[in-house]
Task: structure prediction
Amino acid sequence: MSLIGIIRKHLVVCAGAAALLAQGMSAQAQALKPVTVFLFAVPSGPIVPYFHGAGAGIYKKHGLEVTFRILGGGALNGNQLVMQGQGEFAVADTTSYLEMRTQNTPIMAVMGAVQGDASAVVVHKALNITQPSQLIGRKVAVVNNSGSQYLFPVYLRANGVDPAKVDIVALSAAAKNTAFVAKSVEGTVAFGDVIAPLYESQGLPVTVLPYGDRVPYLQFVITTREALIKSDPALVRAFVQATAEAYVDAQKRIPEAAKFTIDASNGTAPTQPVLEKQTLGILPYTSTKRDAGKPLGWMAKEDWQDTIDLSEKYLNLKAGLKAESVYSNEFTDKNPVNPEWAYSGK
Result:
């Protein structure tokens, strides 16, 4: 065979290989299932693992093309949008989720997201408040008609403080933050290790009084409609497993995880140092001590029962929900085992 013939043969082989590679890449791209996820918070520590999962390619590794929609505290709307078929999953506050379950809404919690109670009373450091008893006679802001409003008195009673002796000021979320920055209130109820780095970056030193295990209440869970569980259980398992892996990987690579979130936030995320501190502050509340040795995202019946009991007593939740009926651990079976850091906050 002449030299020209050999070259032509190799060109044909290379072209064929390139075509097969392109077809393989195209098939892989087509195989990715689109998934929309509604997030409960503005870009901050609690949602960093999700953006890390996207940025680091973890969701794609599990065959998912994920789109996040940030509702900025509208987790109830996230659940509703999932039920309307506008998305597949919501990272939702437990309060609104349980309310929907009392209405027989066919929606299910399939993974725990923030299961420990990361809530705290954040006070101005100059006041030298280090104990709940020192809140007597002080103004403390809570979000109106929210879990923070109704569960703050539970925290006070658990620490031997009569709620009537604390001036509890109920405001909108934005007004609560404004009031604290303006120092028209001495304290505010929030995720302490998430909000504190933000305030301190603004030159506002604070002291954090964590709830700890004084208020046993699951905070946020991942939900989906029961129809999707029946029609595509593989999709649900893939998302749950990928999310658990994203949590574990984000904890190992905090700077990179924060950078992914900032890049995707369109300028709405805090600075890199603040976001890193927020992420380190919230990850210890991913699980509870009852989840030790279980897959990350696994949920304990006892934690759900505590949450339902508190909700019925203090949040006007309609009585009758059974703990075992409101969650499923079916899809956490392939998740990485709960690392100790995930439940060190409670």
